[in-house]
Amino acid sequence: MITAQQQYDLQQEYPVLFDIDSNLNRLVKRIELLSYVNPLNTEKEKHRFFASKYVHEPEFKYPKLKFNPYKLQRLFFSQRLERIEDETIQKFYQDVVYYYANMIQCIETIGRGKKFYYNSLRVYGTPTEKDVDNARFILHFKDEPVASDMDKNHTPEEAKTYFEAFAKQYDFPLNIKFSVHIAADAMVSNATQTLFIKKNAKFSKNQLLTLAHHEIGTHLVTTYNGLQQPLTIFSNGLPKNVETQEGLAVLSEYMGGALTLKRLKELAYRVMAADSLIKGYSFADTFDLIHGQYKLNRHEAFAITLRAHRGGGFTKDRLYLSGLRKIYKRYQNEESLDVLLSGKVALDSEEPMCYMKKLGLVKPNAFKSFSFDQKQNTNTTLDFILNNLK
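Given the sequence above, the corresponding structure tokens read:
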């Protein structure tokens, strides 16, 4: 954790860098893609889709933008990065500016079909052949017997109580709000440090443990670690951070004994749904792939299809499985995860961050993710799968 004196000394030593970082911080706070890409009328369209025998193409509505995309993008590019004398740090911030400029274009085109899809590709990429092969490999495993801790009999209020108890081991505040406008059953808003719980969801005991490790033990840990860094960009998010951050979050589920074959299959279905976008599948086509061909129940199949098709084609979900594969490999090689947990950072950012650490611009983590202390997974099938991903 950085002291006020250390922060002041660094600001005196790197005044231009901190000025630009502060400017970008104010701009980034105005854009959070997930707050715009989740439909406002999901339940209504889900009912219409089921009533039509799975042929009606949903017509989703999205929140209105709270900023002018053109003006905001112009402000990003108006930052005089050439004033940063250190070439490594200057290049680091150039990549950041391009990343957020692409994010603005994503948000601007939500609900506009292919325009959003192609902007989504620029930010999140598309499943590789290796990703699809790994997904198919996972899906060929026979479902395990349903355990009692998989029964969804916990209310959102009970989930809130569970998360509050889980978070007591961490020395940071836990802000919880209920929402009907999120695609997941629970998610963290990095910008507001808030854990949102879906108001009309039901939770199983296993799901609560999974979400606790994923959302609190990883996403909030990296959020608060980033907020303790001298530069704000580490809490706002670096380019390609989603794959790394989701990989860490799912590995924490595994280490905490929460990961199941069912959950791993869910990540595989997400890859298949994202891959269907490349093939030009409609919402109904993707749903038919997941529900009709792979026989996933219709409610879960709808949720996965929605996550892939929201906005016009959203490929973010393909990164969970590839991220898990990369982070698991690192864990197997007994490589430290500390730099990756120091904020919303990416594997690709590790080299410049180590360089900046030598300059005192990256500090040791204020908080640790306790799930990584000891492996609690006892499912040998999961070990076999993770050890054999390409």
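Residues 169 and 177 are 20 Å apart (CA to CA). Try to locate this feature in the token string yourself.
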